[in-house]
């Protein structure tokens, strides 16, 4: 396989993977009236605890202004709250509300059930192979991204 074919395969598979992730996750997100990115924000807060807008943006690789707008929508839905730091009022912490925690647990359970039904026949070795392949692809793309365009 030449470089051009390899590049085209990567582009084709990343598009297919993105489409399939969307197809797998979107129905559950939509059931709760949320977008995939909103669920991603809620999941990050659930897994890591509170964040600032900047740290949340860094964690999910998104611009701070976009995160702030999404957080406002999630705050209006009573799924998260913004609280000023008592030690430094310039710092605003974002955290899940009780309702947000409940929704995240429900979504996580639904996703686990959906995945479990489809992957129960796979072996641990298959999972390891998939993760290893993704790690290799990510490492290659990191190297490529560091090459300056001239």
Summarize this structure as a short list of keywords or feature phrases.
single chain, 150 residues, mainly alpha, two-stranded antiparallel ribbon, 6 helices, 2 strands, 71% helix, 7% strand
Characterization of this structure:
This protein has 150 residues and is mainly alpha-helical. Helix content is 71%, strand content 7%. It contains 6 helices and 2 strands, in the order ααααββαα. β1 and β2 form a beta hairpin. The longest helix is centred in the N-terminal third of the chain and has 29 residues. The model has no long low-confidence stretch (mean pLDDT 89).
Helical proportion, percent range: over 70%
> Mind summarizing the main beta sheet?
2 strands, antiparallel
Average pLDDT works out at 89
Shape: globular
Structural class: mainly alpha
- Across the major sheet, the strand order is 1-2
Determine Rg (CA atoms, Å). 19 Å
- How do the helices and strands follow one another from N- to C-terminus? HHHHEEHH
Tally of contiguous helical segments: 6
- The overall strand count is 2
* Low-pLDDT regions: none
What's this, in brief?
The protein has 6 helices and 2 strands. It has helices spanning 3-31, 36-48, 53-60, 64-76, 98-119, 124-145, and strands at residues 80-84, 92-96.
């Amino acid at each position: 396989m030449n470089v051009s074919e390899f590049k085209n395969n990567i582009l084709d598979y990343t598009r297919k993977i993105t489409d399939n992730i969307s197809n797998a996750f979107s129905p559950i997100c939509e059931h709760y009236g949320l977008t995939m990115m909103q669920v991603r924000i809620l999941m990050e807060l659930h897994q890591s605890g509170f964040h600032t807008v900047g740290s949340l943006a860094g964690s999910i690789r998104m611009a701070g202004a976009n995160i702030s707008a999404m957080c406002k929508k999630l705050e209006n839905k009573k799924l998260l709250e913004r609280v000023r730091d008592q030690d430094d009022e310039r710092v605003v912490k974002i955290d899940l509300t009780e309702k947000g925690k409940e929704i995240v647990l429900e979504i996580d359970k639904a996703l686990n059930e959906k995945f479990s039904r489809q992957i129960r026949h796979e072996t641990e070795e298959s999972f390891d192979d998939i993760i290893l392949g993704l790690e290799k692809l990510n490492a290659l793309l990191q190297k490529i991204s560091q090459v300056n365009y001239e």
